Amino acid sequence: MKKTFRTMTMVLAGLALTLGVSLSSCKKAEQGPKGEDGKNGNANVKTKIYTVTPGQWNGNSTTAYEVTVNVPEISNAETEAVIIYYSDAPSGNFWYPLATEFSTSGSGSSLSIYQFTGAIKTGRLDLLWVDYYSSIYHAPSGTLYFKIVVIPPAKVISTVNTKDYTQVKAAYDLKD
């Protein structure tokens, strides 16, 4: 019994000594210099690219062509800012804003003017392709890529030129 008591006393004394040395060697850290403010984030700003192939367009040669794209990123079309761009290249070196009119020269003196427009709804995007100056309408002949940017109302920066994707990308720190 004496031996056990003595062993316990030695163990407790060793623990007390270790604890005492540990606590006496600790000192409070000093405050370092203030760091630079970080870049504003883009929390809740969503972006995604959707592909539309020629066979997805619905319509005929006497009316416009349309396609519906399911876009779950649009959770509230009434309050969110939704910006739509399109490109004919998957790399998207240049993104054109929707709604856009553009012209192409045909053979001889003919000129065709095309227009892309879109209706934004919660969960989807209805795209419309119209050829206003041709008697025969046709759907886009190549695959098109649509970049959708969805911005919550509290994050909208009113001074950004939304027709210029490079400005939108920089303002919201978007990654391609």
Characterization of this structure:
The protein is α+β, with helices and mostly antiparallel strands and 176 residues long. It has one domain (46-171). 18% of the residues lie in helices and 31% in strands. It contains 2 helices and 8 strands; from the N terminus they run αββββββββα. It has helices spanning 2-25, 165-171; strands spanning 46-52, 65-70, 81-87, 96-97, 100-105, 111-121, 124-131, 144-151. It has a 4-stranded antiparallel β-sheet with strand order 1-8-3-4, with no helix packed on it. Strands 2-7-6-5 form a 4-stranded antiparallel β-sheet, with no helix packed on it. A hairpin with a 5-residue loop joins strand 5 (100-105) and strand 6 (111-121). The longest helix is centred in the N-terminal third of the chain and has 24 residues, at 2-25. The radius of gyration is 32 Å and the shape is elongated. Mean pLDDT is 77; it is low at 103-112.
Beta-strand proportion: 25-35%
Low-confidence stretches: 103-112
Instruction: Give me the strand/helix succession.
Output: HEEEEEEEEH
Work out the helicity level: 10-25%
How would you sum up the major sheet?
4 strands, antiparallel
Tell me the number of strands: 8
Mean pLDDT: 77
Our count of helices gives: 2
Count the domains: 1
Tell the overall outline: elongated
